[in-house]
Structure formats: C-alpha cells, structure tokens
Amino acid sequence: MRKLFAAVALLAAAGCSVSAGADDGRQTVVVGYQSKTINTVTAGTLLRDLGYLEKRLGGRYRVEWQDYDTGAPITAKMVAGKIDIGSMGDYPLLINASRTQGVPSARTELVSVTGYNLRGGLNAVVVPPSSDVETLAGLKGKKVSASSGSAGHGTLVQALERAGLDPATDVEVVNQQPPVGASALQSGNVQGYAQFVAWPGLLVFKDQARLVYDGSALGEPTFHGVVVRQAYAKEHPDVLQAFLQAQIDATNYLHEHPVEAAEAVAEATGLPPEVVYLYNGRDGIASFDVTVKPQLLAALRHDEKYLKIIGADFTDVDVTTFANDSFIRKAYGASYDAGTASTVNAARITGTDEACGTAVSDPAKAGELWLAGEDRLRPAATPTCLLRQIAAATAGGRAVRAAYVPDAATGTHWFADKSVWVLDPSVDDDERFAPFTTRDGAQAYVKEHPRARVVGYDEALKAAAEEPKAAAGEPKAAAGGASR
Fold first, then answer.
1. Residue 280, number of CB atoms within 10 A of its CB
2. What is the pLDDT of residues 415-426, one digit of tens each?
3. What pTM does this model have?
4. Which long-range contacts (CB under 8 A, 24 or more apart) does 236-242 make?
5. Are 112 and 251 within one domain?
6. Taking 60 as the threshold, does the pLDDT of residue 13 lie above it?
7. pLDDT exceeding 70 applies to what percent of the chain?
8. Is 358 within the bounds of a domain?
9. Which of 56, 411, 441, 476 could form a disulfide with 246 if both were Cys (CB 3.0 to 4.6 A apart)?
10. What's the number of domains the chain is made of?
11. Burial group, residue 183, by CB count within 10 angstroms (0-12, 13-18, 19+)
12. What's the mean pLDDT in 102-115?
C-alpha cells in the first residue's frame, strides 16, 4: 500500500494533478471537506455556503469543493496531488501525516483548527433505543460499527480499555462508513455504533439510538483541523492565506449568527438544524477557534498509541514538525498568542432567564430553549429553570423544537428530552434537577448523593412546574402549576 501511495505521489509530482489548469486559464484549488462532519463547517460546508473563499481569492482561482463522509479519501487524494487543502479529525490527521511524511511531493502540514472539545465530547457510542445495554461494558461480546481509524473508533478503543475490556477481543468492531453503520444499527446487524459528530446526535434526535457513552467521560481533547500539501503552500501561499482568512471570516460569522449558521448548514447537508445547533450553537459541544493550541497537539501525541492498537497502517509522526501555525498566525494577526491561550467558547449563552428571573452567567449550567415559530433561542440559567420554561411553554400550547442542557458532570450539551434526569432535593431550588447524557453518569451522581434519585423526563417537567418545596417532595406552600 505504501508503494502504491508513493507511486501515485510521483505521478502527481510529474504534473498529473487535476488542480492545475482550467478552461478560462485560471488554476483550480481543490478543497476536500466533510459536509456532515459539522464541526469542520468553517473550513467546509459553511465556508462554501458563504462564499468567503471565492471572495478572498477575488476571481484569481476557481474553487472545486469535494465532499466525503470521512477523512480517509481526502488523505488518499492529497497523496495523489488531487486535493490541495483538506479538513478532518484528529485521528485521520495523524494518518494523513503518516501517509505523506515520507513523500516530499505529498507531505502535508496542519495549519489551523476548526472545532474542538477539550474533554472529547465530539465522539460518542450509541445503542438502539430498546437495547438493554446501559454501560460500555454491556457491549462485551457484541458488534459495534465504527469507521476504522476515525476519531469515533479511537474513542471506542480508549473507552473500552478504561472499562477493563480488551478492544481486540471483547468487542467485534465492524468497519463501516457512518451512514452504513447507522443503517446497520437500525436493522440489528450491529448492537453499538461509535462515531464522530454529528452522527450520534442525529440518531438520538430521530429516536433511532440512545447514548450509552459520552466521549467527554474520557477527558481527552478531540478536534478537527485543516491540512495543506506543503508543496502547494509553497507554490501558492496567496491561496493558503486567502483560505485561512476566509476560515476566520466564517468562524466569526458562526459566533455572531449561530442560528443562521446552523440553518445554512442544515439546508446544505439535509441534517436537522436542531442537531447542527447542538454541536455548533452557543456553548455547543464544539468550540470553534482557528488557533493551534498546545492541548490539541498533546492530544495528537496521545492518539498515536491508539492508532497502533486499532491496527492502522501507521508510523510515528513528528507532531511538532507536522503542525505549522505560521500561516494562521499571519492571518490571525497580533492577538494570535492570546487567542491560542484562551479556551473560552466565543459563542456564549447570555441574557436573562424568563422562568427564574436571573441572569445567565455560568456556562456549566446554562441551557437554551428553541420554540417552534421563533428564530431565537431562550436562555436558561440552570437545567431546572429550563424545565420550568419548557413546562410553561407546553402548557401554553407551544411546540418545542429543541431544548439543550449541559451534562452536570461533563458539561456536554445534550437534548433535554433525551437526557437522564436526577432530582436532588438537597440543593437550591433552582438547581435541584441535574441532567446527564447517560444513565451511567446519572447513577454515579446518585451514589454520591443519598437523597438524589433518577426521574423520568415527564416527571421532571411536571415537578418543575410546581412550587419548589412540592417538587422536592415536601408539603406545598400553595397550590399552583404555573411556571416561576
């Protein structure tokens, strides 16, 4: 396989690249992206939709966008000299570097980041809604669909290892593209599904899966980034600078117009806007920041071990050499070092909570409510306050498009109606309901809090609509069912 890659790269170096030449005399820059991997949208779907790259290039080049489900075909085409700039996840980035580092004409560099999550929340493992599997250990002896060498696959291997299972023998990993694996899960051909954004969220939103493992439980950063062929960057530095400046433009747009950005990506991909917003919205699972942070480079070094466990055709990568932030530093400007040091999500939930009458100030507790017929989302100071808003809205005949809450332990934003809720009467009235992405997480909380108990979503909504003392299981001070 390596000989094949090398031969293809030599052909590319001999002038067989399709990115050179066009009918009108302009050269074509070829960009490989993954439209449905929605935390790459600032270097792919959203960037394409906004036309910022074409504007930055000023008509000097033609842009050809090539869409793929995973990073593997992008890497293959970069080796062949048929894609100039590409975006992909951390594990595919390492494979990209490994495949190209020994071929001077195809060698690539990591030049910017799209979306990241410092805890690993962009990857997850789901099971069918009716499955009796409640923890990752419950998948022992079962088939799990994953795209070999992907970030989702890497998360699965790490999580199995932490659960005391042997990834090579205790679980049968079936190598499938995300849409194929999704169908296999629904048909019962596999019993688990380990994938990257936005597939787990999509299946859960459509009631076709239930989250059993949140990648945030690993506490290991995961991210997607942009790579360029080094030879192309040297030959066309103006194109790369235009791309990175356009990526910054798209990132700023996403921060300033998160709902519009989600709807644009949804229209382009066919994904529900509610799912896109889960990851890319205010305080979403993904933080969008173009800077190349040291925590993310450390994550790449950490990931190498698991690529070898997976069995990928992989040789060690010099991450320090692979990462080159000189281009994005130039595009970003004088505040680059400050931007690199910051891990604050630039798209924050702010405003005043209508149910509890308090300012939204803590991102670890803040949520949002998206009602049908509204183009804005209503902020909630805590999950309990969000439940009150939902109860009041539904009591008034309003339909809920989506409601988002952060996991009380990991901070991962998830759908309120798909979360596992815990009632803890020992805490303040406005914080007595705690949501978790998985039942495993909820049970861990209950073990540490003797008065806490798991409650159903409908029960939580009903209790939240009552007076706080009544909801905590104490006598009502006064009758009422109105939202506070």
1. 27
2. 999 999 999 999
3. 0.91
4. 236/27, 236/29, 236/84, 237/327, 238/60, 239/29, 239/57, 239/61, 239/84, 240/85, 240/111, 240/327, 241/327, 241/330, 241/331, 242/53, 242/56, 242/57
5. yes
6. no
7. 91
8. no
9. 56
10. 3
11. middle
12. 94
